[in-house]
Structure formats: C-alpha cells, structure tokens
C-alpha cells in the first residue's frame, strides 16, 4: 500500500481549510437575526430582546398601497415608512378623522397613535405636515400578522373581495377607494395564506404525532435488522416472501381502492372530477371522489402487472441472484459490524448539511444596513440615493425635498467581501457537494475493503483479518483520501452543473423561447445520465481501490473494462440483486406503512384510544413510510455493496486464476456451484 492521488489529497485538505475559513468569516459578518426578525425603517429588529422593540414583534407599513405585492414586502423594501408594533390594526380609521375628533374621542387618538412614529403626540400639527413628514400613517385598515408583518385582512363575501366585510375605505387623503385597489397584493397573499394554513396544520400534526412517528421508524429498524440477520440462513425463502409480500400488499391496495370506489357509488358529489373541484387545502376532499380511487387502482394494477411479468421472465436469474445473496449473507455474518457503518455515513453527511446550512444563512445575512433617501416628491433628485441616518438632518436634502427621510432599505455593502457574496454562496454549495460525495465514497471504499478481505481469504473465516471494517477504514483514510476526493470532485462538478441548470430552468420558465427550453431540457437530461454513469463507475472504482490500492484513474479503468468483459453477468446478477433488495425495502416500508395507516386512522381497536386526532392523517403516515424506506435503504445498502464487491472479486478471480494447484480460486465452494461452472474447471496441460 502507498498513498494515491497525493496532489488531489493536498488540494482537498486546502479546500477544507478554506471552507472552515469561509465559515468563520461568514459567522463574523453574518447575523441570523436579519432572517428571524423583520427590520423597521431605522434598521432596528422587531421583537429583539433587551431593546425598545422587545414587545413589538410585528412590522407595520404606513401605506401598504405603495407595495406592489407580498413578495416585495417580504424580500425587498416597500417605499413607505415601516414601524415595529405590538399588534396589527383591527379597524378602519384615517388620520384626518382621528385628529378632528381627538378632543372628545381621546381613545381613538390613543389607539391610532400607537401606529405613529415613537414619541409623536402632537394632534395640533397640521395634517399636511404630518403626512409629509410621515409622522403617522394616513390610514389604517384591519390587518392580521403573517410572517411577522401586518397584511390586510382579506376575505371574500358572495364572491366579492372585502376587508372586514367592507368593500370601500378612506385613504386618508380625501378619497374613498375600493378594496379592489389592493387586489394585486390580495391575489398573491391569498395563495400564501392558504399555504400557511396548510403548513400550520401539518406542523400541528407533527407536534402531536412525533412520538408515534419515532416508534414507527424504530419498528422499521428492528424489522430491517431482523430480515438481514435471517438472510444469513434463509436468504432464498425470505426473498421469495419479500416478493410475494409486495405482491400481496399491492393486491390489498387494489382491493381497498376498488372497495372505496364501489362504496362511493351513488353518493352525491362523488362523481365530480378533480378538475371540477380545483385545488383544495383540505386534501380529504379528494378522497370523497370516485375518480381519485379509480386512478389509485389503475396505478396499482399497472405496478402489479409489471412486477409479475418481471418475475416470470427473470425467475431463473432471480434464483442465481438469491444464491449470490446467500454468499453475501455469509460474508456479513462474519463481519456483522458492517451493518452499522451506514450510521457513520449518516453522521458525516448530517455534519456536512448542518455546516452548509449554517454557513449559507450567515452568508445571506452578512450585509450591513443600507439606508436610502425616501421622498414623497417624485421629482426629488436625491430619491433612492444612499444616505447616512446620523448625518442626514445636517444635509440640504430635507430643505430641497421637504418630508424626505433616510430610511433602512436592505442589507448589503460596498466592500470586496460583500461584492462576492454570491461567489461565496456558490463555493459553499460546491464544497458541500464535494464533502457529501467524499463521505459516501469513504463508506463505499470501507465496506468494499472489509468484504474483499473476506473473499480473498484462503480459509474462511480463519484467514479473515481481525477487525476488518476498522482496518479497511484506516487504509482508506491513510492511503486513499486523495483518490476518494478525486472521484467525489468529478461527481460534485457534474452535480453543481445540474444545480445551475435547474436554477436557469426555473428562471426561464416563463420565457416563450422554445429553443432555449429544448436546449435546457437536453442539457439536464445529458447531465443526469452522466451523473448516473459516474456514480456507477466511482462505486466500482472504489472497490478496486480497496482491493489493489491503485489510484483512482487506474482503478476506474480496470473496473470499467472488467465489467465490460463480464457485461452479461453484470446485467443478470448485479441488477437483479438490486431489484430484489429494492423489493425488500418496499416490503419493509409498505408493511410499516400499512400498520401506520391502520393506527393513525384508528382502525386498530386495541390502540384506538391511543391514536392522536390529526388534521391530515397522511402527514405522519407519509413520514413513517418515507422514513422506513430510508432506514431500510441504509441497512440494505450494506448488502448491495457486499454483493457488488463479491461479484467484482469473483470476476477478477476468474481472470487471474484457473482453479489449478498453482492458481487456485479464492471463491467459496458454493460459488463454484452457483456461477460459471464450465469456467471453474482447472485447465489441462
């Protein structure tokens, strides 16, 4: 053994150090409070503890009519004064009316004054000067907080847009305006509010059912471990149970869909189509339609037919794959610690994701408060120019543009660091992809080294090294960090290009240029195929690195040509094995999912009282199903790597040895009977 791809190893270490430096710089300049708290016109955070705004958690806009849409309110700055308030207005009122009646209706004045600038309490000041200086808003309208900002309390009454059941309001400047003037903002906000309503219900469901979700995932882990342990002894029986279990689960799904479809027959409204009812925030509405259950039934029937046809045409190949899995089961039986290595990979990836997310947030909030001149006069030449709030009152701007103010605009900066924030974000994403792919590569190489030590042992298990998994991990880190980083780098570059293409596709989605859309679609397809191909090559290259200790390019070349010389075996054995393992994941996820379905829908009498009452039972159900699949995938991926390693070792064994006394095979006696019997006979002199 010797160190491989040293140059890439050095570059990888330098990049990691630079990544740490980038995180430190981002943490020094960033301030996550800019994301958590809204900012008023003075650059102060609303709701921040130990400040004057501690109890004022909501941002209020003086004249929301100046804001084009909710997107502008959230991401950009609206050209109107913004203040932190403790609550949103709950009534219509104008400054003109409140000022005229402040002597005999002081309660109205005191209520309105809380939406004026702090400290303003001069009802004798002329209305024109108050509105010019924006001491108070010209009007307030009933609002409700959303994303810690006051938005008009829109509703519809008999198909008419209203605010607090009114269709008109006074704008405080002598005009009566229709609520439809806020339509542009309303159209955007209603969709957001609907999404928020669904989001809040989903959050409530998670808060109520998280304990049972964890129990479901724990059951999935136990079932996966149990299956893997039993595979060592009864691989064939268990996998046929897997196959027929999946067929049975899908068959039950078909029967259930038909029962629901037939049960809804004759019920008023059940014959409506999904198109007729449109989008509904309550997804249970769709389950009252016969069309929904018919679509589910057709999909499940198609899946069932495909699986049955594949089993019929691949039955002989499946028997061969099961025999190879038995050999893999025996290898894992001798190296049981490999079953838990996916936990290490999960921890490494979780660390990468956490570091990337925190760094991205700090980079996004690295800007300094930027202030710009906001003038009521449209012809003011200083409007939208950068200003300093501390020295603004000493300039001539207020004289030349009466009522102009220096207000907070956004977070940014003119320094070299702030100019390259986007480049830093791109670098953050790229190094993140590199590190994640490296963590996956390290896991694959470690497992391959452990299973290769089993295969190449002359006497099994006597010649298997002590602690093969830890030894393999040490070899991968000590000698092959550069090779693993090289393979991960190639894959990260392709993935970054795919991310950029997805971003461009999202930005150009509204364009009418058909050629551009076609070109982007072709590029996305090509790079998707390239990524899949590179993952396949890298996986087998890491196996060759673990076996022979050569550099990445040599190992990738040797693995590729070795597989091409055994392409039929690759297609028949490797992919059929992957299919069987996939069926195992589906059975684990489906079985736990069916159990969760009966539990959350309170159909298990014993646990009916324990089941939580949910808004959407499919929220924890989908979480359990997806989580169970991922748990099963983690354990079954060890088997997949074992089979791939043994298969590659077997192909290499066939080419290097002939079964003679001088060149004996390293494969076990069972593999002699399973694969290539003719090729395994010793050559005659």
From TrEMBL:
Ranges that cross the membrane: 7-28, 210-230, 237-255, 293-314, 334-364, 431-456, 477-501, 579-600, 621-641
Locations listed in the record: Cell membrane
Membrane topology label: Multi-pass membrane protein
GO cellular component terms, semicolon-separated: plasma membrane
Keyword Glycoprotein attributed: yes
Entry keywords, A to Z: Antiport, Cell membrane, Glycoprotein, Membrane, Transmembrane, Transmembrane helix, Transport
Record bears the keyword Zinc: no
First-listed, main subcellular location of the protein, grouped into a coarse class: membrane
Catalytic activity: choline(out) + n H(+)(in) = choline(in) + n H(+)(out)
InterPro entries from the UniProt entry: Choline_transptr-like
Entry GO MF terms: antiporter activity
Family the entry assigns: Belongs to the CTL (choline transporter-like) family.
Job of this protein: Choline transporter. Choline/H+ antiporter.
Protein name: Choline transporter-like protein
Naturally occurring in which organism (per UniProt): Opisthocomus hoazin
């Amino acid at each position: 053994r010797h160190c491989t791809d040293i140059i890439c190893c050095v570059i990888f270490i330098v990049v990691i150090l630079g990544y740490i430096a980038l995180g430190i710089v981002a943490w020094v300049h960033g301030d996550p409070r800019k994301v958590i708290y809204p900012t008023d016109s003075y650059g102060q955070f609303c709701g921040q503890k130990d400040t004057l705004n501690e109890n004022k958690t909501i941002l209020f806009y003086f004249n929301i009519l100046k804001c084009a849409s909710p997107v502008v309110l959230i991401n950009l700055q609206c050209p109107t004064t913004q203040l932190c308030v403790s609550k949103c207005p709950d009534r219509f009122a104008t400054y003109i009316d409140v000022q005229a009646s402040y002597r005999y209706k002081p309660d109205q004045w005191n209520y309105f004054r809380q939406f004026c600038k702090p400290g303003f309490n001069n009802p004798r000041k002329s209305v024109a000067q108050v509105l010019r200086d924006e001491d108070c808003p010209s009007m307030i309208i009933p609002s409700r907080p959303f994303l810690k900002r006051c938005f008009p309390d829109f509703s519809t009454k008999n198909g008419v847009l209203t605010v607090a059941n009114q269709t008109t309001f006074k704008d405080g400047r002598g005009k009566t305006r229709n609520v439809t003037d806020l339509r542009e903002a309303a159209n955007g906000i209603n969709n957001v509010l609907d999404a928020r309503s669904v989001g809040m219900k989903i959050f409530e469901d998670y808060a109520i059912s998280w304990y049972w979700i964890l129990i479901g995932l724990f059951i999935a882990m136990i079932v996966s471990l149990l299956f893997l342990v039993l595979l060592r002894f009864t691989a064939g029986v268990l996998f046929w149970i897997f196959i027929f279990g999946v067929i049975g689960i899908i068959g039950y799904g078909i029967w259930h869909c038909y029962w629901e479809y037939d049960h809804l027959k004759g019920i008023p409204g059940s014959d409506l189509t999904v198109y007729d009812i449109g989008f509904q925030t309550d997804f249970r509405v769709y389950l009252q339609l016969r069309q929904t259950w018919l679509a589910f039934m057709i999909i499940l029937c198609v899946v069932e037919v495909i699986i049955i046809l594949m089993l019929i045409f691949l039955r002989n190949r499946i028997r061969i794959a099961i025999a190879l899995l038995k050999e893999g089961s025996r290898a894992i039986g001798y190296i049981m610690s490999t079953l838990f290595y996916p936990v290490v990979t999960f921890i490494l990836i979780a660390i990468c994701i956490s570091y990337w997310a925190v760094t991205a947030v700090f980079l996004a909030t690295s800007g300094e408060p930027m202030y710009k001149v906001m003038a009521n006069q449209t012809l003011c030449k200083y409007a939208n120019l950068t200003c300093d709030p501390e020295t603004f009152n000493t300039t001539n701007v207020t004289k030349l543009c009466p009522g102009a103010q220096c207000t907070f605009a956004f977070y940014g900066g003119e320094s070299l660091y702030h100019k390259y924030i986007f480049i830093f974000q791109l670098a953050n994403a790229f190094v993140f992809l590199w590190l994640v792919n490296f963590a996956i590569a390290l896991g694959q190489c470690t497992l391959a080294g452990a299973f290769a030590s089993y295969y190449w042992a002359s006497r099994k298990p006597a010649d298997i090294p002590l602690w093969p998994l830890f030894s393999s991990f040490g070899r991968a880190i000590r000698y092959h960090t550069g090779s693993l980083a090289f393979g991960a780098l190639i894959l990260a570059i392709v993935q970054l290009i795919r991310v950029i293409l997805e971003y461009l596709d999202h930005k150009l989605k509204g364009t009418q240029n058909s050629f551009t859309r076609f070109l982007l679609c072709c590029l996305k397809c090509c790079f998707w195929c390239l990524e899949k191909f590179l993952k396949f090559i890298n996986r087998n290259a890491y196996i060759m690195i673990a076996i022979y200790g050569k550099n990445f390019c040599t190992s990738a070349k040797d693995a590729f040509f070795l597989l091409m010389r055994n392409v039929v075996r690759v297609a028949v054995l490797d992919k059929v094995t992957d299919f069987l393992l996939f069926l195992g994941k589906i059975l684990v996820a489906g079985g736990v999912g069916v159990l969760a379905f009966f539990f959350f829908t309170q159909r298990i009498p014993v646990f009916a009282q324990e089941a939580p009452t949910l808004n959407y039972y499919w929220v924890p159900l989908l979480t359990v199903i997806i989580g169970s699949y991922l748990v099963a995938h983690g354990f079954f991926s060890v088997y997949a790597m074992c089979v791939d390693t043994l298969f590659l070792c077997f192909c290499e064994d066939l080419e290097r040895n002939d079964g003679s006394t001088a060149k004996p095979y390293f494969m076990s006696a069972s593999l002699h009977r399973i694969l290539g019997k003719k090729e395994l006979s010793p050559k005659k002199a």
